[in-house]
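Lab notes, practical 5.
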Amino acid sequence: MPTKNIMRVLAAAGFIVLCMTLVLLSGAADHKEEPPAIGLVMLGSKDDPGWFKNSYIGMRDTCKSMGSMLYTAEFIDPNDDDMVMNAISDLHKKGAKAIFFNAHGYGRLVDRFRAEYPDTTFFILDTGNDGANVKSYALRLYQIRYLEGMAAGLKTKSGHIGYVSAARISDTINGINAFMLGVRRTNPSADVIVSFEELDIAKHPDLERSNEAAKNAAIDLIVKKGVDVLASNRENDIIIDVAREYGVYAVASYPDHEESDLIIAESNYDWNGIYSALIKEYERAFGRDSFYLYDMERGSMDFKMPSSQVTDKERAIVMQAAEELRNGFEPFSGEIKDTDGNIRCKKGEYISDRKLRQSIDWYVEGVKIYAP
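Output from the prediction step:
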């Protein structure tokens, strides 16, 4: 065959191969799996300062970095079955393949939405309902409460520390207990006086009324019980406003508060990192964990003591404990007694995560419940 003919045949063959390659690549591009659309069900609004706003921003930034669409459902009352199921239906219709809940209470309906939406994966903050398309996640917030308690123990002069709490559930109770354990580490003779809000926002998602209830509880603790440090598991400025008005110290369980030198401690949460990790688990069809926990050790939480009224020595004491937590220290370990003197944890033992999150209904020695 003449050389020119051979060259023509080779060129034609090369052109055919090139065309086939382009077609295959085009087909691969057409079938490239898109990042999953994400739904976020919220008890409050994405504009509410603290937990709701910060978790929303974390999810928003996570979805943006992954190229995922984010759809939200705000002001969804976990005790209103129709409202919850309608919110899930709406998010599902918009294409959400993974739906997150950023407050407690929705887990009681888990059997319904697991069965009705088997093609959707749900991430809940309530434990005990994990399954094929449902996973629990949480932060070990009690680690932050432990550090807050240490700071409060160092700064109290009266020996009485106030704590305003929302619903009496395991996650809030273990936070109170961890706070008391922290107080005991720096001030063994101090007590923690706890006042539960008359209004539970999980049952009455009315932020204005809930704020008023928390404010009244905080004022009562100062005026009637003589506390000189205020703590809370709330995530807005109400408790800080009361502390400022009455000139007592306060701890802030979130970063974006109004500045005050009376705030002796504040915490921050890496919601972007948390949600990114969870969505990656979703894409891998989950690991083996029954539920996912994020903590100081994983870098999911941070703790600061910004006030100039905290001495270098006091700051060093608490930050040493923070470093211990990053290296695996467990606050709920060693001998722990409850308010009746019963031993709830023995020397050489620790309390499991599942028990802390599901079945804590007792308080550490030194906690006093105040019911005005």
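Observations recorded by the TA: The CA atoms of residues 34 and 370 lie 53 Å apart. DSSP finds eleven helices and 15 strands in the chain.
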